[in-house]
Amino acid sequence: MAIQFTTHEVKDYLKEKRRLKLFLADLFSAEGQGLKSLHYVFCSDAYLLEINKQFLQHDTYTDIVTFEMGEDPAVTEGEIYVSVDRVVDNAERFKTPVNQELHRVIFHGALHLCGFKDKSRKEAALMRSKEDEYLEKYFRKK
Questions:
Q1: Contact by Cβ (8 Å): 114, 28
Q2: 8 annotated to bind ligand
Q3: Which residues are involved in binding Zn(2+) (predicted)?
Q4: Against a cut of 0.90, is the pTM above it?
């Protein structure tokens, strides 16, 4: 199992990467999802907009785009692109620390790869509840 974090032309806000990798591995395990590889790319709005247009045909800004790259649905091989610009803006908008919003998005992408959806109101509520659960666990463990 390999988890990687890279940045593309943005400030690196991520601290305690080793601890986060271990926590993410535990998240996948707790959700009953195998994990082979996971690559997070932290980028700008402009970069993620191009990915959103090219691969999803969406011409809108977003904070995250998640791709399952593997063929076995029981074992994740994923790529997650996170717009640091959106995370910072959302943190201001929701009056939450950037570090907390960044981790919410990180866990959100992982949960998508574990099979959680957020298209309906009911799915979105469950997703938010799971994000809150993992945020509480992650920040409590310090």
A1: yes
A2: no
A3: 108, 112, 118
A4: yes
Rounded CA Rg of the chain: 14
Residue 126: in which H helix or E strand, if any?
A: helix 121-140
Query: In the CATH scheme, what is the homologous superfamily, with its name and number, of domain 2-140?
Result: Metalloproteases ("zincins"), catalytic domain (3.40.390.30)
Cα-Cα-Cα-Cα dihedral sign, residues 48, 106, 110, 40? positive
Q: How far is CA 134 from the centre of its chain?
A: 12
Which tokens go with 44?
A: 């700008």
* Pair of tokens at residue 110: 């992982």
Mean pLDDT over 90-100 rounds to: 96
Alpha-carbon span 61 to 48, nearest angstrom = 7
Cβ-based neighbours of 127, under 8 Å, separated by 6 or more: 108, 111, 116, 117, 118
Q: Is 39 annotated as a binding residue?
A: no
103 is in an annotated binding site: no
| pLDDT over threshold 60, residue 13 | yes
